[in-house]
Amino acid sequence: MGIFKRAAERPAAVSTQIRSVSQHPFGILDSYVPLGGGDIRLYRTIREAIPVLDAAVMKIIRLTGGFSVCCEDKKTESELNEFLRKVNAGRSQRGINAFLDNYLDSLITCGRAVGEIVTDGNREIAAVLCGNVCDVQVKEGLSPLDFVICGRSDSGLFEPLPYQNLILFTPFNPEADSPYGVSIFRSMPFLAEILLKIYNSVGINWERAGNIRYAVVYKPQGDIIDKAYAKERSEQIAKEWSAAMQSGKSGSVRDFVAVGNVDIKVIGADSQIMDSEVPVRQILEQLISRTGIPPFMLGLSWSSTERMSAQQADLMTSELTAVRRTLTPVIEQICDLWLRMHGRYCGFEVCWEPINLQDAVEEARAALFEAQARIMSESDN
């Protein structure tokens, strides 16, 4: 019948057990698994370990400056600015500036920032709070315009937050294939590790310089008796030398007397300590250039001339303007919600304070030259 006929065995696929696999030299990247905030902990560690980078971030936050909101209706403008000045920012802080400082700190360090608008149910905004970027994730749809902010639920899974219009989310310089931004510390871990190794080595060398070690060498003479008692004399010399060193710790002075050929040297005295100024400066130049802060603003004098400093100040102004453009949509979202909750439909504009990094004396001199040129031009006419 063929029902119980044994099926023909298929030949097994042939494969070799020993074979070479061609990979790129950075194979560790293939096994990398995102840790859900591991990179953020790394960036915060870099900022904590290198004070000049922490100072650079704080400089950016302070130099961003304040703002005011200009409305078509002056009464609405006054009420809106009063709200921005007194709004609760959490942790005993008040004012939109306190919120923006924390928000910008997270934006620069983590590459993204998240916040929340808290309402009290009486057509009022009770608070504007910053959140931890590790507590939220972005869920994308079929297009870049279709995305929602997800938070961790009671089950531990990330689910879309119920009120998306109350969530503030800003990526810092986002890439085309990722909804998350890029931290300014992303390109720093390699150089930061080298810098910390140099500083650690310098600390170890100075610790050894303050707590020196001695090499006491006893050389027996050519006679038979000296060679026969070499071990006993070495132990006695070691005992007396140790006692002399211990008495020095207590503040007393004790001499060391030995008979025979005894050589005493400081261990490592002949070794030369490497000059760390050049490599440290080269690494710091790379790190600080990523922040966009001129070195002279961080207390570093690297042969920066006056003209060169003025050019750096102009570049810094453009950097701060870019940061303001990133924060403006967040401010507009808060103000727009406040206006709609109060039934106001007037237009408004975020007006930032002017950035002034130039020398006041040079500005006054330039204004004087301009006025003199204008007077001379009028007199010629």
What features would you describe in this structure?
With 381 residues, this protein is of the alpha+beta class. Helix content is 45%, strand content 16%. The protein has a three-stranded antiparallel sheet with strand order 5-4-9. A three-stranded antiparallel sheet has the order 6-7-8, with no helix packed on it. β4 and β5 form a beta hairpin. α2 (51-64) crosses α4. The termini are far apart.
Quantity of strands, as a count: 12
N- and C-termini, Cα separation? 121 Å
**CA-atom Rg in angstroms:** 34 Å
Helix content: 40-55%
Helix-strand category: alpha+beta
Indicate the mean pLDDT.
81
Q: Nutshell version of this structure?
A:
The chain has helices at 38-49, 51-64, 74-86, 96-110, 189-210, 224-228, 230-249, 277-291, 306-341, 360-380, and strands at 67-71, 88-90, 93-94, 112-119, 125-130, 136-140, 147-152, 158-160, 167-171, 214-219, 261-266, 348-352.
